[in-house]
Amino acid sequence: MTAEASVPIHPAVTDDVPALARLETAVMGADAWGEQALADELAGVPATRTVLVVEEAGGPVAYGVLRAVGQTAEVQRIVVHPSRQRHGLGGAVLRALTVNAQRRGCSELLLEVAADNAPARALYAAHGLVEIARRRGYYSAGRDALVLRRPLERRRPYGEPRA
Ligand SMILES: CC(C)(COP(=O)(O)OP(=O)(O)OC[C@H]1O[C@@H](n2cnc3c(N)ncnc32)[C@H](O)[C@@H]1OP(=O)(O)O)[C@@H](O)C(=O)NCCC(=O)NCCS
Predict the structure, then answer these.
(1) Is 30 left (phi over 0), alpha (psi -120 to 50) or beta?
(2) Buried residues in 110-135 as b, exposed as e (16+ CB within 10 A)
(3) From the CA of 77, how far away is ligand 1's center (Å)?
(4) pLDDT, tens only, 59-102
(5) Rounded to an integer, what distance in angstroms lies between the CA atom of residue 30 and that of residue 25?
(6) Taking CA atoms, which of 10, 27, 75, 92 is between 20 and 30 Å from 100?
(7) What is the overall mean pLDDT for the chain?
(8) Which of 24, 52, 86, 127 most suits a substitution to test ligand 1, by most atoms within 8 Å of the C-beta?
């Protein structure tokens, strides 16, 4: 089910860090980013980072991180609370990060995903990301990583007036 049009997404602020760390722990377990790692990502906003949050009544339920350098934007993280997965939130975050990358003038979107992460691979495939490389044994326990890419069509950059 997708309900992207009504998803309330906003840029993360420093006050979101503790709740985002709890979300990380709930979803990513041993691989979770802690408060310091999250604060480091936020410190890169807006120069090289975009951090977007989906907030519901009880707090953040999903978030995503984009790193943009030159022509290349890379999705660093998309995390959705288990109780809210499969409701279009991950897709909404990915779409918003993609638009942000386009408005930054990036011409390609990259990301890395574990080869055995079927939900994430399905999400990314649905959004036009295709495999360009496999990194064997890249993750713990010898799991392979896949590098995915999507070329980006240009969008009007932030601050540029409409033609
Ligand atoms: C991967 C993840 C972000 C997907 O978020 P989500 O909000 O559940 O995804 P959406 O509801 O937007 O799904 C969009 C599409 O992706 C695909 N998809 C998502 N989860 C899927 C699953 N478990 N099985 C099969 N397809 C799936 C489907 O095509 C889905 O569309 P549909 O529901 O209309 O069929 C979420 O499962 C998650 O947080 N996983 C743990 C963290 C992680 O692995 N993040 C990615 C690497 S950092």
Answers:
(1) alpha
(2) bbebbbeeeebbebbeebebeeeeee
(3) 13
(4) 999 999 999 999 999 999 999 999 999 999 999 999 999 999 99
(5) 8
(6) 27
(7) 94
(8) 86
Under DSSP, the state recorded for 147 is E
Q: Is 130 helix (H, G, I), strand (E, B) or coil?
A: strand
Sign of CA dihedral 34, 72, 82, 59: positive
* Domain annotation for the chain: domains and CATH numbers: 4-151 (3.40.630.30)
How far apart are the CA of 120 and the centre of ligand 1, in A? 5
CA contacts within 13 A on the Cβ side of 161: 1
Lookup: tokens for 128: 């036009």
Tell me: pLDDT of 9 over 50: yes
If you measure from the C-alpha of residue 27 to the centroid of ligand 1, how many angstroms do you get, rounded to a whole number?
Answer: 13
Using CA positions, which residue lies closest to atom 20 of ligand 1? 119
Going from the Cα of 94 to the center of ligand 1, the distance in angstroms, rounded, reads 10
Residue with tokens 């840029």: 11
pLDDT band at 157 (very low <50, low <70, confident <90, very high): confident
Question: pTM for this structure?
Answer: 0.94
